[in-house]
């Protein structure tokens, strides 16, 4: 029994005792008061009669059904009974209702409900701390892939609307401060089913606290943290936080990809996007002069990438000290630093906006950024605009500016963490892809377009082990050879291909990009695929159903049931006897 | 002095003594067992049970359990009485009376255990 329940029970004592006393006094009085029966004799109610009488009187039902009319003495006691018991009921009901509405009691109820939901989770779950934009995007992406999540946020209005969200799985939510270890434990941190903690609150200090708490109290679990400031990031890495995701670093890497190889950037965008949305168009960045407004962490990150691309850059920032240190660095000698804000036409003209190819509006103030974009576009409509988007509420405004790339921290973090958790091989794939030449990316892109059409593919990893590919492993054990191409055959029509592309094969820590169809699969391999949801279903069916796999390999639809199997064998024997010379077709 | 404990002891011991008062006498003789006394035992026992609601200590939970046991037997005794006399409309027979009295005897054992627990709890209290 929880503390609150027993507190409530304890407070129920008074109303219960009042009721018991009220009833027993009334009943006793009714039994003792003399009445007169229809023959004029004196009679007394039995306890049974009296309890019946008091019960319908106290609850104000008032049947009025008694063996004989009441005597005046009984009527007098009935009056006392009515006032005594009805008042006792009013008092008790009022007390009980106020207890049920008690905020601590309600809180205890919701906590109990959360604990029950947590218990009902069958295997494992991921705890998401912070249910803002990022947390929401992650919860929906993970539940769509059948991964259980639990969310925690200190804003009750976000947790209250959870049942209204249309997630494919039940998402238990708890309202509480994730920075408080005790509340984090209540949210299921120490639960053995908790597989990972994702700290994506808006505050770096809270994320750090969550990471520390998780690593101390449940060291085995995977901890993913969002961090925007460098000192927090270093701190998080110092105690082995598994993944620290920084929106600015992540974005500057993506930006670098866009500068160096638009097709690789496109590939990244497609393979990490939300499945079933439309594929994006490639972004082409011309070479030439760039202007960066705002030289904070975001601006500096992009500046480093532009510096590597050997592009002339002009920086606009109001900080004098920043300018001093900037000009003192030898590698910056080719580039300018102008003191100013960037949202006035004069500063932008001085910075050379008329001849520039691109502008980065990277201040931490959305109104300034929007103003920079509008002024710059007016001066030079052909500018390539990279916009930093700070507050979610301004999304419509940024969309209206027609910027080429919009950097939205929550979207970038959600995408990165989603990829990390759902398909860890994808990170390895993208890292390896970065070292390939641009033609490789072009070929891959055209292949994806050709096979999968125009919506973002589903990414899945095939682990060749007895848990995830039962039938496949059994067949491999028998010494049969199965190739990558076999996996791509349709479970319904073996001569047709499913809409999927093998992206990478991982065998003994070795990575092979785009494995060809003739590679034989070995037990223990990991294969990364992209394709349509239907293709994923078909493949999963084949790999776990011996009959389907057999069909794919031999073109024979063998029956499942015992009798049909016997009939089938009998017919095959007959067939063989009739044509003894014919060679059996074997798939090697 | 813990007022809550004193009040509970009062009702518990009252329940036991009333219970004894009802129980004592020839087991099948209706003249020895008063219906008002049974009524009083039920009411006092009900109050004693309610007084232990929401007690989180081990002793409190035990006392709640024993008084619930007593209550169950006393209520069954009352139901039998009401059933035979009021519903079936028969006069009280020695058979029925002995059933009722033996049930109240069972309730008395539970009440005795309650009082023993109460004594143990009191004697363990540090002064």
In brief:
The complex is a heterodimer of chains A (588) and B (127). Chain A has 588 residues and is of the alpha/beta class.
Mind explaining what this structure looks like?
- The complex is a heterodimer of chains A (588) and B (127).
- With 588 residues, chain A is α/β, with parallel strands linked by helices.
- Chain A contains 24 helices and 18 strands.
- In chain A, helix 10 runs parallel beside helix 12 and helix 10 packs across helix 17.
- The two termini of chain A are 65 Å apart.
- In chain B, helix 1 packs antiparallel against helix 2, helix 1 runs antiparallel to helix 4 and helix 2 packs antiparallel against helix 3.
- Chain B is mainly α.
- The mean pLDDT of chain B is 92.
- The longest helix of chain B is centred in the last third of the chain and has 31 residues.
- Helix content of chain B is 78%, strand content 0%.
- The chains are: A alpha/beta (588), B mainly alpha (127).
- At the A-B interface, helix 1 and helix 2 of A face helix 2 and helix 3 of B.
Layout of strands and helices, then pairs:
The complex is a heterodimer of chains A (588) and B (127).
Chain A: H1 3-32, E1 34-36, E2 42-44, H2 47-58, H3 72-100, H4 103-120, E3 125-129, H5 133-144, E4 148-153, H6 156-160, E5 173-175, H7 181-186, E6 194-199, H8 204-217, E7 222-226, H9 230-238, E8 243-245, H10 247-260, H11 262-272, E9 290-293, H12 297-308, E10 313-317, H13 320-328, E11 336-339, H14 345-350, E12 358-361, H15 366-379, E13 384-388, H16 395-400, E14 405-407, H17 409-422, H18 424-434, H19 438-452, E15 458-463, H20 470-477, H21 484-487, E16 500-507, E17 510-513, E18 526-531, H22 533-544, H23 546-554, H24 562-578
Parallel strand pairs in A: 3-4, 3-6, 4-5, 6-7, 7-8, 9-10, 9-12, 10-11, 12-13, 13-14
Antiparallel strand pairs in A: 1-2, 15-18, 16-17, 16-18
Chain B: H1 3-23, H2 35-51, H3 58-87, H4 94-124
């Amino acid at each position: 029994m929880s503390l609150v329940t027993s507190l409530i029970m304890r407070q129920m004592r008074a109303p219960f005792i009042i009721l018991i006393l009220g009833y027993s006094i009334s009943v006793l009085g009714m039994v003792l008061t003399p009445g007169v029966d229809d023959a004029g004799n004196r009679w007394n109610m039995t306890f049974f009669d009296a309890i019946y009488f008091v019960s319908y009187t106290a609850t104000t039902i008032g049947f009025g059904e008694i063996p004989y009319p009441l005597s005046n003495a009984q009527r007098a006691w009935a009056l006392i009974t009515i006032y005594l018991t009805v008042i006792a009921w009013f008092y008790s009901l009022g007390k009980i209702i106020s207890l049920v509405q008690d905020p601590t009691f309600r809180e205890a109820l919701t906590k109990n409900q959360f604990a029950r939901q947590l218990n009902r989770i069958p295997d494992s779950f991921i705890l998401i701390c912070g249910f803002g934009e990022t947390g929401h995007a992650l919860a929906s992406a993970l539940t769509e892939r059948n991964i259980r999540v639990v969310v925690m946020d200190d804003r009750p209005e976000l947790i209250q609307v959870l049942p209204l969200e249309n997630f494919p799985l039940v998402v238990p939510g708890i309202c509480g401060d994730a920075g408080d270890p005790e509340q984090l434990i209540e949210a299921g941190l120490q639960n053995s089913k908790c597989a990972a903690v994702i700290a994506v609150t808006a505050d770096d200090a809270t994320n750090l606290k969550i990471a520390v708490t998780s690593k101390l109290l449940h060291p085995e679990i995977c901890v993913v943290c969002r961090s925007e400031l460098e000192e927090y990031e270093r701190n998080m890495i110092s105690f082995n936080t598994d993944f620290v995701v920084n929106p600015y670093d992540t974005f500057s890497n993506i930006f670098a990809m866009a500068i160096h190889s638009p097709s690789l950037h496109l590939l990244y965008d497609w393979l990490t996007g939300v499945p079933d949305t439309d594929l994006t168009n490639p972004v082409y960045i011309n070479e030439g002069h760039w202007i960066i407004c705002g030289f904070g962490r975001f601006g500096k990150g992009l500046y480093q990438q532009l510096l590597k691309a050997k592009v002339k850059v002009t920086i606009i920032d109001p900080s004098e000290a920043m300018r001093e240190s900037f000009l003192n660095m030898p590698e910056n000698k080719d580039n300018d630093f102008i003191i100013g804000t960037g949202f006035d036409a004069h500063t932008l003209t001085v910075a050379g906006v008329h001849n520039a190819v691109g502008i980065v509006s990277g201040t931490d103030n959305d109104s300034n950024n929007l103003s920079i974009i509008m002024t710059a576009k007016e001066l030079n409509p052909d500018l390539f605009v990279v916009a930093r988007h700070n507050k979610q509420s301004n999304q419509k405004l940024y969309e209206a500016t027609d910027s080429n790339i919009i950097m939205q921290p929550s979207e970038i973090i959600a995408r990165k963490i989603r990829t990390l958790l759902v398909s860890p091989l994808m990170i390895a794939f993208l890292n390896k892809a970065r070292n390939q030449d641009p033609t490789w990316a072009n070929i891959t892109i055209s292949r994806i377009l050709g096979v999968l059409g125009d919506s973002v593919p589903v990414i899945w990893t095939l682990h060749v082990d007895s848990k995830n590919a039962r039938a496949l492993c059994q067949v491999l054990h028998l010494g049969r050879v199965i190739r990558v191409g076999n996996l791509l055959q349709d479970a319904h029509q073996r001569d047709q291909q499913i809409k999927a592309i093998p992206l990478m094969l991982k065998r003994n820590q070795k990575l092979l990009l785009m494995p060809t169809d003739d590679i034989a699969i070995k037990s223990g391999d990991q294969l990364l695929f992209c394709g349509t949801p239907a293709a994923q279903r078909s493949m999963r069916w084949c790999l776990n159903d011996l009959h389907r796999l057999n069909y794919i390999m031999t073109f024979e639809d063998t029956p499942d049931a015992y009798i049909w199997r016997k009939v089938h064998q009998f017919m095959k024997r007959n067939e063989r006897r009739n044509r003894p010379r014919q060679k059996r077709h074997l798939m090697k | 002095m813990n007022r809550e404990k004193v009040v509970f002891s009062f009702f518990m011991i009252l329940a036991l003594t009333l219970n004894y008062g009802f129980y004592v006498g020839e087991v099948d003789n209706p003249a020895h067992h008063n219906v008002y006394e049974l009524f009083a035992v039920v009411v006092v026992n009900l109050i004693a049970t309610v007084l232990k609601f929401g007690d989180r200590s081990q002793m409190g939970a035990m006392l709640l359990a024993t008084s619930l046991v007593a209550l169950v037997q006393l209520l069954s005794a009352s139901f039998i009485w009401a059933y035979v006399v009021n519903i079936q409309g028969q006069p009280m027979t020695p058979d029925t009376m002995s059933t009722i009295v033996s049930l109240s005897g069972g309730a008395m054992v539970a009440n005795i255990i309650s009082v023993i627990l109460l004594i143990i709890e009191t004697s363990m209290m540090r002064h």
